[in-house]
Amino acid sequence: ISVVRSTLADVQNTVKQNHASLLAMLEKCLGKTTIEGEGSASLSVKLPGNLDRISLEKKKGEGSSMNELTGDAMTEFRQSVKKVELPAFDGEDPAGWISRA
Questions:
Q1: Rounded to 10 degrees, what is the CA torsion of 87, 77, 45, 19?
Q2: How far apart are CA 22 and CA 29, in angstroms?
Q3: How confident is residue 100, by pLDDT bands cut at 50, 70 and 90?
Q4: Please, are residues 39 and 60 in contact by the beta-carbon 8 Å criterion?
Q5: What are the distances in angstroms from CA 59 to CA 4, 5, 27, 91?
Q6: N or C: which end of the chain has fewer CB within 10 A?
């Protein structure tokens, strides 16, 4: 049992280190900061143009993360998005098929 406990502690430490390095890489790539509280982490990203921000959150006890646009950013995004209908793909000429879209 003590071996399992020590192995579990090692795995937990590795996960914490990987999480910290992943957040550091995201900050470096995006040039932004993260705010981390006990049991949750949040990353806010400023976007160019009309979109104000995207917030990615993962809270303790949740099974998955949520991507959400907030406030006017969601309204502007929905207004700027255009639905595209693609013709059925027959398996031939993929470049021609996508150019017809």
A1: -50
A2: 10
A3: confident
A4: yes
A5: 27, 25, 19, 44
A6: N
> How many other C-beta atoms are found inside a 10 Å radius of the C-beta of residue 43?
19
Number of residues that make up the chain: 101
Residues linked to residue 40 through DSSP beta bridges, in sequence order: 37, 59
The per-residue pLDDT for range 55-79, each reduced to its tens digit, is 444 444 444 444 555 677 777 777 7
Q: In 3-state terms, what secondary structure has residue 40?
A: strand
Q: Where are the alpha helices (H) located in the chain, listed in sequence order? A: 2-30, 72-80, 94-99
How far apart are the C-alpha atoms of 85 and 101, rounded to whole Å?
7
Give the separation between CA 67 and CA 97, rounded to whole angstroms: 31
Q: What is the pTM of this model?
A: 0.32
One-letter amino acid for residue 28 of the chain: K
Residue with tokens 């929905």: 78
CA distance 52 to 43: 14
**Interatomic CA distance for residues 77 and 84, integer angstroms:** 15
